[in-house]
Design brief:
alpha/beta; 6-stranded parallel β-sheet; 36% helix; TIM Barrel; 191 residues; single chain; 6 strands; 8 helices
């Protein structure tokens, strides 16, 4: 994650071999993707996404980690010859402002993604609740992942873990980590 960091950091990371870059704000992501236009980079959109911005995000993102409703599936879907990967964002807490579908709705939303043009279901994504031991939440996410694979056997991805809890996420099968400050350092202020 390069949130609030300049595009120059993305270029530096590219020279070091980083090929996947995550952003969680569309305005920042689209500007960086344009400034660091390089086919070697795969942009991952990981933040909450409004349906009215989905088409624009589809224009630069290889993967969207925060698909949490049917309207977003419809907005991201396109028959333009390009396929983007999506993760279903699963709500792992009742915290206000946290995104994600209820775990019971995972298979239904997975079916909608599988039926949509231009989308490939990669798996599930979740954020551990604040102030609690993260591993039990990631264990629940792994169990939900197993259920989603009954809809699409290829949806084996688990996007979980950030700078503070990636070890616990790996222990529960995370395949994609959303690490920012542990790699990029403290975020610049003012973003």
């Amino acid at each position: 994650m390069t949130k609030f960091h300049p595009a120059s950091l993305v270029r530096e990371l590219l020279t070091l071999g980083v090929r996947d870059v995550g952003e969680n704000r569309h305005q920042e992501a689209v500007a960086k993707a344009a400034e660091v236009a390089d086919d070697r980079l795969a942009w991952h959109f990981v933040g909450q996404l409004q349906s009215n911005k989905a088409r624009a995000v589809r224009g630069y993102a290889a993967t969207v980690h925060s698909v949490d409703r049917e309207s977003l599936v419809r907005a991201l879907s396109a028959e333009d010859g390009r396929v983007i990967g999506v993760f279903l964002e699963i709500g792992l807490s009742d915290e206000p402002g946290r995104g994600g579908i209820p775990p019971a709705a995972a298979e239904s939303l997975a079916e909608q993604v599988v039926a949509a043009a231009g989308l490939r279901l990669l798996g599930v994504m979740g954020v551990a609740p604040l102030g609690t031991e993260p591993r039990p939440a990631f264990a629940r996410l792994r169990e939900i992942s197993e259920r989603v694979r009954t809809v699409d056997a290829g949806a084996v991805g688990i996007s979980a873990g950030m700078s503070g809890d990636f070890r616990e996420a790996i222990l529960e099968g995370a395949t994609h980590l959303r690490i920012g400050t542990a790699i990029t350092g403290k975020r610049p202020t003012g973003g």
